[in-house]
């Protein structure tokens, strides 16, 4: 037999067994009915959907300083923008009148003591009455209280800085007559950790996502190419009547001397609650009704199971779902889900 005939026989045998193998593969696939799908693994992420806002930089603690009593402003020792130390004298009234009041109260008290001693001696000599002694004692106590009040008022006719800080505003000038409690200076803390905060306003749909100690990144145009870390330290329990927004306070980590009160900060706020959510492609959604959607998942890589998920937010090409909706080690079908039914066998393809 010629060599060419042997070659034809070999090719024929190979073709026969090759066709038989393809037939068996197709037959096996038909029997198992595995449906090809593509999947992704679930991963939690803190940065699913950061909240963006703008806010104003202010001091952590601010105080309006004033005199307890009225009078004529005699001296103002600092101006707006200056840094002051704790207990540094900032201003004082003309003390002529208050000193006269203190002296008058002092003399009245000294006289009341002499009157009380005289009444006591007369009563001891049976010339005076017990009632006279008691009345003098009462008048002496009243005079003593008046002297204490006058000295206290004189103490608060002088303004000292309650802490190290910056003078934010000066309200009056030397020579003006001021009333009790009228604002003289506005001061804000400075020079120690946690003294600078950014106050922002959030809508109800955003404020419900955050909690105290959530992390934020803040940037200022005055300090380009730098993001400062901060945390949520205060959340308003009711909306601002004028804006309808909820005031939120972010405290910056450390103290930054280059930043001035009034700077506008751009905020990216990362809710801690988002760390308990999954971000999955929108292609995984096979059915939806309001905030409830349906997806297919697989825990063993062999079987697809239909699951309902609660969708908390939609992005351009993704959706955010609660972690409680899905098992932690599951894979989500992102291609081929439209042809699946629950408990279908699947074949994961790359």
Structural commentary:
With 350 residues, the chain is an alpha+beta fold. Among the domains are: 86 residues, conserved putative lor/sdh protein from methanococcus maripaludis s2 fold (Beta Barrel); 91 residues, Beta Barrel (Elongation Factor Tu (Ef-tu), domain 3); 61 residues, Orthogonal Bundle (Helix Hairpins), CATH 1.10.287. The chain is built from four helices and 22 strands. Strand 18 and strand 19 form a beta hairpin. Helix 2 packs antiparallel against helix 3. The chain starts with a helix and ends with a strand. The N terminus is likely disordered.
* CATH class bucket of the domain at 51-61 and 194-273: Mainly Beta
Helical residues, percent: 25-40%
Structure summary, number of beta strands: 22
Structural class: alpha+beta
Give Rg in angstroms: 41 Å
Query: What does the main sheet amount to?
Result: 6 strands, antiparallel, barrel
The first-to-last residue Cα distance is 49 Å
Family: Belongs to the membrane fusion protein (MFP) (TC 8.A.1) family.
Domain CzcB-like barrel-sandwich hybrid: 66-187
Protein name: Efflux RND transporter periplasmic adaptor subunit
InterPro entries: BSH_CzcB-like (IPR058647), RND_pump_MFP (IPR006143)
């Amino acid at each position: 037999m010629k060599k060419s005939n042997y070659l034809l026989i070999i090719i024929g045998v190979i073709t026969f067994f090759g066709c038989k193998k393809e037939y068996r593969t197709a037959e096996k696939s038909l029997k198992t009915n595995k449906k090809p799908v593509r999947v992704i693994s679930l991963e939690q992420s803190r940065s699913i959907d950061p909240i963006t806002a703008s806010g104003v930089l202010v001091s952590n603690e601010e105080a309006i300083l004033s005199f307890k009593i009225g009078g004529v402003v005699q001296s103002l020792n600092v101006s707006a923008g200056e840094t002051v130390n704790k207990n540094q004298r900032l201003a004082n009234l003309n003390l002529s009148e208050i000193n006269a009041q203190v002296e008058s109260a002092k003399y009245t008290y000294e006289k009341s003591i002499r009157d009380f001693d005289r009444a006591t001696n007369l009563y001891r000599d049976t010339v005076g009455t017990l009632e006279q002694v008691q009345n003098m004692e009462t008048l002496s106590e009243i005079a003593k209280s008046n002297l204490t009040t006058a000295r206290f008022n004189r103490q608060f006719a002088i303004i000292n800085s309650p802490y190290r800080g910056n003078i934010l505003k000066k309200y009056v000038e030397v020579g003006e007559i001021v009333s009790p409690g009228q604002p003289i200076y506005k001061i804000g803390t400075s020079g120690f950790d946690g003294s600078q905060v950014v106050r922002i306003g959030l809508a109800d749909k955003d404020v419900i996502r955050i909690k105290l100690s959530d992390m934020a990144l803040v940037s200022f145009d005055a300090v380009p190419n730098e993001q400062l870390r901060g945390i949520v330290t205060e959340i308003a329990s009711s909306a601002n009547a004028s804006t309808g927004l909820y005031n939120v306070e972010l405290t910056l980590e450390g103290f930054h001397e280059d930043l001035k009160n009034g700077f506008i900060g751009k905020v990216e706020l990362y809710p801690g609650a988002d760390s308990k959510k999954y971000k999955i492609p929108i292609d995984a959604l096979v059915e939806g009704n309001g905030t409830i959607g349906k997806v297919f998942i697989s825990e063993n890589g062999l079987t697809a199971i239909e699951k309902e998920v609660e969708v908390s937010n939609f992005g351009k090409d993704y959706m955010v779902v609660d972690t409680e909706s899905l098992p932690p080690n599951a894979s989500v079908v992102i291609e081929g889900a439209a042809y699946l039914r629950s408990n279908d066998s699947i074949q994961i393809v790359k």
